[in-house]
Amino acid sequence: MITRWLLRRLGRSLDDRLRTAPVLRRAFAKVFPDHWSFMLGELALYSFVVLVLTGIFLTLFFEPSTADTVYSGSYAPLDGSRTSAAYASTVRLSFDVRAGLLMRQTHHWAALLFVAAIVLHLLRIFFTGAFRKPREINWLIGVTMLALALFNGFTGYSVPDDLLSGTGLRILYSVTQSIPVLGEWLVFVAAGGEFPTEEMVPRMFVSHVLLVPAALAALIAAHLGILVRQKHSQFPGPGRTENNVVGSLFWPSYTMRTLALFAWVLAVTFALGGLAQINPVWIYGPFDPAQATSPAQPDWYVAWGDGALRLFPAVEFRIFGHLVASPFLPGVVFGGLTFAGLYLWPFLDRRHRRGQLSHQLLDPPREHPARLGFGVAVLTLFAVLLAAAADDIVAKIFRIPVLDVLSILRVLALALPIPAGVLAYLVARVLQASGGRGVGDLTRQDVRSVRRAVRARVGAGVGAVTAGSGTPPPQDWAAPADADRIELWRDRAGRWRWRCRGAGVLLTANQLYLSRDEAERAARTAYGDLPLREVEPPGGAVGVPAAMVERAGRVAGRTGGYLTLAAVAYWRSRRSRRR
Amino acid sequence: MTGGDGPGRRERAASGLVVGAFGVSALGGAGFATVYATGGQTQLEGLALAVAFAGLAVGLAVWSRHLLPNGGYVEEHEPFDSPPADLRLAAEALAGPESPVRRRGLLAMLAVALGTLGGAALFPLRSLLPFDRERPVHALRTTPWAAGVRLVRADGVPVRPTDVPDGTVLTVFPEGHRGRGDVPAFAVRLDPARFVVPPPGGNVAGVVVYSLLCTHAGCPVALYLKETGRVLCPCHQSNFDLLAGARPIAGPAARPLPGLPISLDADGFLTAIGDFTAPPGPGFWSLK
Ligand code: FES
Hints:
heterodimer, A: 579 residues, Cytochrome Bc1 Complex, Chain C, 10 strands, B: 288 residues, Rieske Iron-sulfur Protein, Cytochrome bc1 complex Rieske iron-sulfur subunit (chain B), Rieske_2Fe-2S_sf (chain B), transmembrane helix (chain B)
């Protein structure tokens, strides 16, 4: 009662000043597609929030300076030793600030999760073709955020001025220094001189807590703004067209769901931060250019670069007497190509498709075998690189000389990606041809028929295989066969609403409309020329879950139901016992 | 979940679960506060917060899944190309008769002004490398090692050839320049009869000195394998053969470790007779 009264008061006073009612009404009614893969971006968003919250706490205790200090605190092995202020304050933060270690470790785990979520989100977007027109801008923003996240992860990992991160920093310095013509000046200006300088820690700190987070926040705002403006894409399905979005309402169901995800992210990162040790800088010791740790592994998201540095052969050459040093090709060129490829992908992909259609319906990955195959090949290469970054550990575990591990990985890096890509391509073709639901449903017959088809195609011309080979999208999106009519009605309060009905489809409009015209216009936009009938207001609650959503939720529902019943039975028995 | 009262029962059960989950969450929060207030303990703090947030998550998830409508809604998705009339209006508003867009000459000069200003604004970036510091090329090519500079250990004690142990390497620095990044070197005792290539810096009673920095990306090549006379870089596993002038024999490094020319001073301490035989550490554009 009181809550509702308060909300109404608040709503009214806001509306008097900002006229928020129409905006809010539409915002609440925004439809989100129901598919788990649409939550990956939110996973990244919430990890970012955790990073900001824990990070603010850390900045209040961390001293970004390499000035000589004496650590005195409760970590006995270092008590009284001379180290940089950055290192000493990190150790103090871990041992002498209450809840400091929890915040530090949670921050680090959240950073790992942040980048992982971005990468998974990117893969989802890639394999389902969600980067296509009109969403290229958001793809570019997303790739930029990935680059910033990698950079910020690296600087955050480096500011404590410990031995392990100092080694990583030394490598990054050398990679930058290897850039022809500009490298020497670039790295000297960035770091303030020859490695190691006093300026590195404070500069990385400013970048880590101010410049990059501010840029990320601005880009996140743009990313979300564009998302709201463009509305969500969706997987094809009954009643779904290029001109509508099917799913749940933002308020209330999606709001609750997304807040639940936020709480999960907090729960998991704090559990890890409390229970799983990460980056124990007090064990590594303070940075010293004459010492190194071994084995030395960076955080996973830069490990692909480290792996490339390890695998690439010792190639150094001269141009007009100038040296192009060995980290240049695997470090700068490979990294540059990776990001150039990511940035250009929407425009490269488009060349394989006719015209410049806008796409709101996603490709199920199998519908685009060439893209799937390419993506799998690249991922395989990166997987080998990640393994290469741990080659010394692999060598230790299997007791093989590390140089043999290196040779094996070199062969794998060259030999694996293409077969893996071809395999993914073929599986997609087989799935497509058989119409099976998953790889498990395939029969040998299916495989053979496609093999024949592919062979025929290859015989006809290799080009045909690589060109976009998915089934061509039907041009007329407006009238899916499974939705066969629109029902329009006026409720008792005189407002209009519509729904789309067909075999296995019952989808209710997300909004109430004040006029019949408005309602009809929305229905026409969503479903084109389906027959439209005015009907009596349907009885019962509007927006009962449609049959197909129900089916999808049944498994989860049943499990949840049993758990619920058990919990309630327990709760009841406790209550009756108390009486 | 059969029978006529199924939905009602399910709803009651779900509400019960939500209430319970939020209760657990409150307990977790209180637990965190208690742990903190009683002295703090990282594992328990993390666990308590995890329980608090997991309770919240379960409660919210059950609430949204079982007590709220899921799916079954559709929203229209209008195409993004504006009607031609709209486009025309926008174009007119932007580039109407008085529009600045039409003043080509003024625009060109404005571009010149802004371009110059933008270029000039980049100059202060140069301040990031203080002007009283060495320029990159010179700094990279040279180190404080010079004729007459004694070799000292990390604790500053000068080194005699007999101080160099058999079987491990001894990290050495130029006297008075311990902290610089490009100076670390290592002294190692080898049997001169095994030299395939004579060490570039010469040897004093079998003691040779090389730069400690890997020529790949600058990590200290800390691991010495006595039997083969190799040092190994822990970063990307480059191997250097100390018996053959520290030539790289495996891994991504492409240049040998620079040697340090040494001799004995009047007091019998090891001393440099010049800078490294090549710039130490990773390569760069102006490396000769
Ligand atoms: S830094 Fe020594 S191998 Fe890369």
